[in-house]
């Protein structure tokens, strides 16, 4: 039986704590729902109540007992986790989660939604948009619940969760390419739209009487990339919470400004709600619909970031990370719904089938149809908000790429990534994304295809991972629901990709390399 002195030493000895920390297995969180009060501790406290050491001993024992009862677990993380930008800091909260979710959830991809309604029509367009919103919100909830497993593992990256559910080889095969494609492809698109908007911004401020020579589109891409790369030197995901906050405010602001201006200025002449192009066959019409569904799927992005955002939060038995994360996500998606639905509905009402064939269709429509009758200050303000939002969104979507690059180094060298090398990685990625934006300017035209490729990440994989990890009772309501959603998500993904490819084959795709508009 341990003495009182030994019990106190067990609690407070730094050497013991260090040895326990070293010997404990990594990545494990040992959970205990409740730690029962020890009869021995109670007897010990009562027996020492009349001694001179009663007060210190009672305080020490009460402290140890309260610690075990209230915390009930020990968190041991792999040292490499503290070296990587996503999990380097774990002091996040619900506010940070809301900022990151808003910054990644509202973006220029929402400006394509009126095109989907132009194909699907009023009724089916709104129904599909609503179903997609509810569906992806449910799968987002599944991912948040799966972040902490029953065994104590915290999955702070989507790829790690996929490998845990499907196995290492299959998990990498099905998730690695879509995740990197979503992160890298989104950054390339942001360079195109941000740089193009900066060019419009300059043209608005400096008219024909200005003697300054305007920059080319490629040069504006480089200007945007340089600014984004400088901001990207912030060390970790928590450190860009302020950037995400600014990105969230600008996204909500320009989304609201665009649809309010579209209503106030009225519809231009010649607006029609007929299909954009008469379908030559039932098959062509079907694939047009599938391509529109891909655009809707592309609008609801960010599932590849939710586990990373949750990984920046502390976790305990009393307050697991899923609680503040879900609170932040609920608030964020309420705001997202208030932005995306008006953009889609008002944008289609205002412009119908006159939506311009550009990367940021609603923004271009605003310039094209209302530039003359709208104050230059308003249009300049809208352009400024779009550029700031693109710069902010670039940071959070590039973070998984930075994390993966540094993970390769830390795994090989078993030490943290030096500051100079971290900066070099980020500059390298900025240069690579800028080169792709210049070399492949038609990439945003693949929005339907990108949505189809990324669709399983959002709508299918979370349901399958829930079944494989949580193992609900076979043929129960939860089991059937997740199987149905998973299979339907995969079928929809294949159909959308097929529809996008069919559209390219039948209509053609204007491909021009190294010649951005």
TrEMBL record:
Family membership noted in the UniProt record: Belongs to the amino acid/polyamine transporter 2 family. Amino acid/auxin permease (AAAP) (TC 2.A.18.1) subfamily.
UniProt entry tagged with the keyword Transport: yes
UniProt xrefs under PANTHER family: OS05G0424000 PROTEIN-RELATED
The protein's role, per its UniProt record: Carrier protein involved in proton-driven auxin influx. Mediates the formation of auxin gradient from developing leaves (site of auxin biosynthesis) to tips by contributing to the loading of auxin in vascular tissues and facilitating acropetal (base to tip) auxin transport within inner tissues of the root apex, and basipetal (tip to base) auxin transport within outer tissues of the root apex. May be involved in lateral roots and nodules formation.
GO BP: amino acid transport; auxin-activated signaling pathway
Keywords from the UniProt entry: Amino-acid transport, Auxin signaling pathway, Membrane, Symport, Transmembrane, Transmembrane helix, Transport
Listed InterPro entries: AA_transpt_TM
Presence of the UniProt keyword Transmembrane helix in the record: yes
Membrane topology: Multi-pass membrane protein
Protein name (Swiss-Prot/TrEMBL): Amino acid transporter, transmembrane domain containing protein
Organism per entry: Parasponia andersonii
Domain of life: Eukaryota
Any one cellular-component term (Gene Ontology): endomembrane system
Amino acid transporter transmembrane domain ranges (all copies): 91-501
Transmembrane segments annotated in the record for this chain: 94-116, 122-144, 173-198, 218-234, 241-263, 283-300, 331-351, 377-402, 423-443, 449-469, 481-505
Localization annotation: Endomembrane system
One example GO MF annotation: symporter activity
